[in-house]
Amino acid sequence: MTEPRGIHIADDDPSWPGQAAAAIEALRAAVPGLFVEIEHIGSTAVPGLAAKPVIDLMAAVHDLTHAARHQGALADLGFRPHDNRMTDRLLYVPEADGVRYAQLKRTIVAAGTGPGEYARAKTALVRELTDRARSQLGLPPVPVWEKP
């Protein structure tokens, strides 16, 4: 299967957590004291899940204005700010849902979907899984969206 426009879905790679840990260390070293917390998020953080082989991190800071001052240093490391609020909740759902998600991703790519459309095409399933996981925890639904 040829994957169009640079989108590639890879089988789970056991090196992804280590890559995330190294990236987190690099961020902390580049701008000491800036981050309150940094987490490995997204599909590469879910053991056994096929994913685009891109390590996503979510970093919390005390004040966004402090982060803006370090944008150059972060860009030099290859990091870019992103205002996406959607994170994968598949760490908390049954394995069958992870299989559904991986199949959906491969189907989207096989259809020739581009990067922006790829992200939006996943949103309905992510919304379903997120709503179910939150409901099981007694939490209300939250908006789930994806933008390029």
UniProtKB/TrEMBL annotation:
Gene3D superfamilies per record: Beta Polymerase, domain 2 (3.30.460.10)
Source organism, top-level taxon: Bacteria
One Pfam family matching this protein: GrpB
Name of protein: GrpB family protein
Source organism (scientific name): Streptomyces aquilus
